[in-house]
Amino acid sequence: MEATLIGGRVAVTDDSAHDFAAWVEPHLPAMTRFAARLVSAADRDDLVQDALLRAWRRWATYQAERGAPLPWLLAIVADQGRRGRRRSRPPAVSVHDPRQHTRLTPADLDLERAIATLSARQRTAVDLYYFVDLDVATIAAVMGCAPGTVKATLSQARARLHQLLGEGDHV
């Protein structure tokens, strides 16, 4: 079976994999937005592709009673984003649509630079909350921690961003 990302949709070459494609398809926009926060635009689709392949290989281990598919899939994206050659963290182009081509303002660049100084845990929480638009409970599931930990992490990240950007700026 081969599952590939083509034009923002999952294409499969094995009829038995259509269930997987249907299962993962509603989560592709969030996976793509998160991948865009982790790697360059040129590597975004490769990261999603790698995550889809890993999800397909591990699909039998997914347990619905342990949580929804989205946190499981986003955790795979995060894990794949930390692996291999994807070590740099470029600024994202857009908050809502990573394929949208907009100019970053100086304020956007300042915010991206400030976010880049956060700890990996804080960046993940900020990316998932503000850029992927997930709720605290889902972020907790992705990060493998309690919702209170996510709230504390976001609070610490906001305080650090306020410190870096100034009280009235951006956050």
UniProtKB/TrEMBL annotation:
Keyword Nucleotide-binding belongs to the record: no
Keyword annotations of the record: Sigma factor, Transcription, Transcription regulation
CDD domains: Sigma70_r4
All copies of domain RNA polymerase sigma factor 70 region 4 type, residue ranges: 110-161
A GO term for molecular function: sigma factor activity
GO biological process, one term: DNA-templated transcription initiation
Gene3D superfamilies reported for this sequence: 1.10.1740.10, Winged helix-like DNA-binding domain superfamily/Winged helix DNA-binding domain
Ranges for domain RNA polymerase sigma-70 region: 24-87
Highest taxon listed in the record's lineage: Bacteria
The family this protein is said to belong to: Belongs to the sigma-70 factor family. ECF subfamily.
Protein name: Sigma-70 family RNA polymerase sigma factor
Organism: Nocardioides pocheonensis
Organism classification: Bacteria, Bacillati, Actinomycetota, Actinomycetes, Propionibacteriales
